[in-house]
Design a protein that fits this description.
about 525 residues, mainly alpha, 22 helices, globular
């Protein structure tokens, strides 16, 4: 492809990344416990000008390596501290991932633009590209490492092998030793399955190991020297204990990651199933190409490994999602001139319609906390049905465009219509804004019987370390209290002798606000 034809491809990719990853990144506040916690750690590191020891509330926070924190610190330095700046690292890494896939497929495998665009609007990628977390940095760096290794395997250019080690080092800085472990497992199984064991040994490059060590070892050594408890906390508690026990209370059944992975491929789930089925069938008939075999092993290792883990969270399986999209790309490339069975196209259309319908119903669902069906939902149903029919009739040649349209509409609807409800019901930004409205002064805040999500969220938005339990360890000076709805009388009794004044409430999160005198 010459330069004249390549320019529109890059522009289209940039436009997709800008829309799916960056547009209205501040549409709703930080959600859950992890987003505000990680964002606050990066802020404290920046305020202390300390690039080595992560801290939360002034105390060492040694659960995760620093790659996300470093990226967030740079974003804060350039744009100021905000929730959308805290999400910029993931959005940037997702864009890097999309362009890496495009580069990999442009090397001669074909279907490069289609696969990159499919990845850009994939539900799992979009979701974690818009979250302040370590999952996207890990998935992006790990994917770049794996496709770099396969590029070296395909052409034996040493530069690709060095890129593999460098990216694997960054993945290790993103989330720890899980990255090199998964990579070693994938490459070992692939070498045995394809009879290329000598190639595996040749990939153990001294210069590559040196690159990996230069990238990873300095931080690990320095943080251990400054915090002698680091290896115990990080390796034993937050890697081995998290994998082998339910100490962090995230139990799920063994099959948990099967539906999670399939949902993460939306709206391409139907073709993911077809690609997996086709790849496995070709393995049984001894007709697989090395690319499909590699991608199948990649998906299998990630999904099985985290399925064995006793602690399960949806983001853990994210490194398998790009491999699935690459597998779909191979499947569609091999059938570019074939006419797909109408049943599969109808199912694909139904998934696209379901995505759009869910977006249209999201605002009312978030406000009411349950799906309520009435006559007003007929129009969204008709719109989604029409979109599904359009996708089903498009055929493979127009599949990219026909599927992108409902995906674009779904995200636009969520960010324009559902984001306010999402912010009001799930984010501590709404709590902080409500506190600012009911109290003219920025007083310290304490909490009573609120969720971890609210505590960590207020810690970020108020830039304050909140006391663990206000009723047992009340603050000395005047302050505000955020309490679970209905505990006003208990607060008055616990703080007898001090003036406790009700200020208002946030019904969307079932919270009440109080002023406490000195």
């Amino acid at each position: 492809m010459n330069l004249r034809l390549r320019i529109p491809d890059w522009i289209l990719l940039l436009a997709f990344c800008a829309f799916f990853f960056f547009w209205r990144l501040d549409g709703f506040g930080l959600i859950g416990a992890d987003e505000p916690r990680y964002a606050q750690v990066a802020r404290e590191m920046l305020e202390r000008r300390d690039w080595i020891t992560p801290t939360l509330g002034g105390s060492p926070w040694l659960e995760k390596p620093p790659l996300y924190y470093w990226q967030a610190m740079v974003a804060y330095r350039i744009f100021g501290v905000s929730d959308w700046a805290a999400r910029l690292p993931s959005a940037f890494d997702a864009s890097l991932l999309v362009f890496a896939v495009f580069w990999f497929l442009r090397r001669g495998r074909g279907f490069a633009l289609d696969s990159a665009l499919m990845l850009a609007c994939c539900a799992g990628i979009v979701g974690y590209a818009r979250a302040a977390s370590m999952d996207m940095p890990l998935a992006a760096m790990f994917t770049i490492a794996m496709i770099a290794w396969f590029a070296w395997f395909d052409g034996e250019r040493h530069l690709y092998l060095l890129l593999f080690y460098a990216s694997l080092g960054l993945a290790t800085l993103a989330k720890g030793p899980v990255a090199p472990f998964l990579a070693a497992a994938i490459l070992a199984i692939f070498a045995v399955a394809s009879g290329t064991r000598k190639m595996l040994w040749r990939s153990l490059s001294l210069s590559g190991v040196l690159v990996f060590s230069v990238i990873t070892l300095p931080w690990y050594v320095l943080v251990e020297l400054r915090n002698p408890e680091f290896l115990r906390v990080f390796i034993l508690e937050h890697n081995l204990a998290r994998f082998g026990t339910n100490v962090f209370h995230h139990p799920e059944p063994f099959w948990y990651y099967i539906p999670v992975t399939l949902l993460s491929w939306v709206p391409w789930t139907v073709f993911a199933v077809l690609a997996l089925q086709s790849g496995l069938r070709r393995i049984r008939t001894d007709e697989p190409d090395s690319s499909n075999r590699f991608l199948l092993i990649w998906i299998m290792v990630v999904v099985v490994f985290f399925s064995i883990s006793q602690s399960k969270l949806p983001g853990y399986v994210l490194p398998a999602i790009p491999a699935g999209i690459l597998l779909i790309g191979n499947y569609l490339r091999d059938r570019a001139t074939a006419k797909p069975h109408w049943i599969w196209m109808c199912l694909h259309g139904a998934v696209s319609a379901g995505l759009l319908l869910a977006a249209l119903l999201a605002p009312a669902t978030l406000v009411g906390r349950r799906v309520v069906w009435d006559r007003s939902d007929i129009l969204p149903l008709l719109v989604a049905t029409a979109a599904g029919i359009g996708v089903a009739k498009a055929g493979l040649r127009r599949l990219r465009v026909s599927t992108a349209v409902p995906a674009v509409l779904a995200l636009a609807i969520v960010l324009r219509l559902a984001a306010p409800a999402l912010n009001q019901t799930l984010s501590a930004r709404a709590v902080s804004d409500a506190l600012a409205r009911v109290s003219g002064r920025r007083l310290p805040v304490a909490t009573v019987l609120v969720s971890r999500e609210t505590e960590y969220g207020l810690g970020f938005y108020r830039n304050q370390k909140l006391p663990a339990n206000e009723l047992r360890q009340p603050l000395v000076g005047e302050h505000l209290i955020v309490a679970r709805e209905g505990f006003g009388e208990g607060i008055v009794r616990a703080l007898s002798g001090r003036t406790v004044r009700y200020l208002g409430s946030l019904p969307g999160q079932k919270l009440e606000f109080f002023y406490v005198s000195p």
